[in-house]
Records
---
Amino acid sequence: MIKKTLELIGEYILLMKRVFTKPEKWSIFWKQYFVETESLGLTSVALIGIISIAIGAVLVIQTAYNIENPFIPKMYVGYMVRESLILEFSCTMVALILAGKVGSNISSDIGTMRLTEQIDAMEMMGINSANYLILPKVVAVCVFNPILMLFSFLVGILGGWLIVAATGMITLSQYTEGLRFAFNGYYIVYAVTKMIVFSFIIVTVSALYGYGPKANSMEVGRASTRSIVAICLLILITDLMLTQLMLN
Amino acid sequence: MIYVHNICKDFGDQQVLTDISVNFEEGKTNLIIGASGSGKTVLLKAIAGLHSIDSGRILYDDMVFNELEEKERKLIHKKMGMLFQGSALFDFATARENVRFPLDFFTDWSMAEKNDRVDFCLARVNLDDIGNKFPSELSGGMQKRVGIARAIVMNPRYLFCDEPNSGLDPQTAIVIDQLISEITHEYKMTTIINTHDMNSVMAIGEKVVFLFEGKKEWEGSRENILYSDNKPLNDFVFASQMARMIKESKS
């Protein structure tokens, strides 16, 4: 187990050494960057939007239900929703969702290319396949996911607003007052930092599992599953470390 | 010219190649034949630099390929073309884009110049109208021809073909064989083909190397292959009923 883990870390370091080299041609890199932004970033917008709006609404209902004490102002519902979204849901939970969607996509795509010798074909041409295939994905996801995180935050707030407007469990002015109460801009920096780190983990770890040798299509599926498990664990561990580092 | 000298390769406990030395001649179609699992693909991929070797030397002209630095190996890779068993066309690109792929990376040509070269290569493999189709929309034979066009687009000096006829009907297989042979002579390339198809051996094999259980068992020309007294070779060559009947009728 320990030997396997150390081997995996070694493979990861060697792969990253090949990924983070100067691209053969910048024009090709930028072209791939936009392709990856569309396929890994833009296609996740709807999914994240739907989940965030629902979570925002549910947070309002649950928080309002739990604040029964008349001495606690109702505006705390908005405050709690904002803090929950920015501190944990829109970065960590969204990253875990993206680990499933983006991570499995990358791992299976690269794994299939390995299995069908497309990666060998690139190496034969003298192209650094790791750099060509992985670097644009890393940059695209690390740039786009923080935007996606801010989008998730805003849509979550909107979800809360909609449920407040629909049910009247608190007034809209109480909700907006709570959203504006004791706002700490540093939390945005904290959340964006976390999202960038999580995005890096999602792409590089899924690429590592996809890039390894494959004997058959079942191995591609297994590698994809293993990559998601590894990414989720790493995200949770990194979340603990970053929270300790940045909020204490 | 490519010369492999005493190369050995194992995967863990399994010895795949043992002490193989062969001289692959320039301007000729050199064939590596042998049963499945005899080490043909591993040998071809080792020569092409896709597998590392445990010992021995691989020489491209006078350069020891397996001892070169990454940058120098890359320069030799640019002189190579390879047709893979499953064609290995990029799923994300059309047939034209597949052929143009190395040009995009390694030339500063204008798009018009690149398109001219792509048209020329596609015409050379008798494919004129399929440029904008994706690999999944092409038949197996067409995919192989696009693969050949992509392999020759950079004017390589060395051409490697891994089972070029696998999965093809006999007529298409002949077309592919002839195409590879013609291109080899036209551009004076050193071509190494890995096959277990005896039709290919008899049609285009100018030099034949027979592998048996990871060792070089026999080496010679296609003319001599029928008259060899090497038992493993005879078992392989005359494995089919038709081949045995031809041998009996000749004898």
---
Amino acid sequence: MPRAGHSLERPWNDSLERPGDAAMSSLLRLLFAPGFFASSPVHVALAVGGIAALVSGVVGTFTVLRGQSYSGHALADLSVTGGSASFLASISPLWGFAGTGVIAASIMEMIGIRQPRGRDLATGIVRGAGLGVAALFLYWDTTSTSTTGATVTILFGSMFTVGSSAIPLVLAFGLPALAIIAILYRPLLLSSVSADVAAARGVRVRLTGLACLIAIALAVSLAAVTVGAILSTALLVGPAAIALRLTSTPGRATVTAAVIAVASTWIGVVLAYDSFTWPPSHDGWPVSFFIVALIFLGFLAAQLTGRLRRVGG
Amino acid sequence: MQVRRVLAAIALTTAAGLLASACSAHPAGPSSGVIVAVGAENQYANVISQIGGRYVRVTAVESNPNTDPHAFEASPSVAGQVAAAQLIVQNGAGYDSYMNKIESASPDAGRKVIVVQHVLGLPGTVPNPHLWYSPGTMPKVAAAIAADLSTLSPAHAAYFRANVATFDTSLRPWLTALAQFKAAYRGTPVAVTEPVGDYLLQAAGADIMTPFGLQADIMNGVDPSPQYVSLQDSLLAQHKVKALLYNQQVTDTLTASFLALAHRYGIPVVGVYETMPAGYDYQSWMLAEVSALRKAVASKVSTEKL
């Protein structure tokens, strides 16, 4: 079979070689495959992935504190509906992810069932209906338009093909989410401990809850662009869960979660870039796998150290 | 009143339909002599009708130029077409494997199935399934179609043979254009989004600079590695290629970004297709692709859509 294509003759050569620090240079080479620092898809992935991870880490801490992990998961699944619709309308999937996320968050809050059991049921039913519509949209995407790979892009992300034009949009969705958490920091914490106490202190519990759900929806839609809609909950609750095991105050947990999320995203990008030469396909492993795997390993390590500490103490 | 008008309309359309089918069935009549055939892609349907002429009635399963055939999902109406067909031509090489499922769902010992990949003696794992872009493919397919049609309708064997000769002759302008391009522009570097036109480019002596891994990733709808994206970007931005062959049927944000780069840096674009675009037959389509390639390389003129 003719091998269409060219041997990769590395047009992305770095200028790492400087006389004097050969050791440093070879270490860098070991960590970063050639061309990492010059690659524009990598720059965009680091920027977009970094912002998404930062927002997910911060918002995720409150998601876990307020016991809304399942809502976060449902919002992630529902964003698939919007993502697949945006492919049909040929607009940036971020619009679809965020649009359906915010609408779904409002519906979930409107249903507003206080008991966790009823809330889970309502969330589950809305989530199922949304995914059914997503199935229809994805079918149309592949059968009536020429968008290929829409399903993989929506479900598992496509960080290296995002394009630098997405950065302003990512900021436009990320900053409001961070602002919500910053402004409602105290009321959110208070109402997550006890809704009654918060209400007695003058906190508008339902409005706060809605704002928090919207922040979760925004965070999840940003993460959907980087690691995909299905995996975005991993980025939302994973770093937060680790941070809450390692730290004792909400403030520290928030910062730690953000650092863990950004670090695992960036290390994931580096590993995905380095995996270019790995078997079996020799064209790289998906970045979303690395990020989620790193978070899971971090969670296991945090569990283990927690247990050791308990045994030791 | 309303009901009557509707009934009249139904009667009229039924009559028109009967008349139309009676006309198209000429000279053999609907059930006797006319061979019902299906081409999985419309380029194969086109060749069947060129060889079978008035003795076949052909339908194509895939002919929508706005969809990706790789992602095609068969509907019940396709199953009906296949069940009724006496002759089927399909590509194979995993390109239209849904056909195998439909065929095995309606087994028919008398049905002839031509798998182009088998006709060419290629393994099912052949990396580039777009076999019809190779100049060697269709003459062999045409001969196989004529052989099967002759088995189904021995009385018209000579007619089918003559049509094969006509078909082979009609490919000459395309083959000549390919040879002329090769003589003038051998080794011209080009970029592609997908392997769709690769066999044609190889026959034209062009040098495909895009790594096959990237082409395969885009074809299969998986996320390509950043190394490939950087390389393809540099091919366009640094004018290392003379043309970008852009698959109009398989587009996503990544291919759109390549197209935008080509526009920005003045790299001519040649649109290529997975199925035969409207207004062409197989020969004129292939000739149009080579003419578009030549225009791009020789005079920097884009032909984004045929």
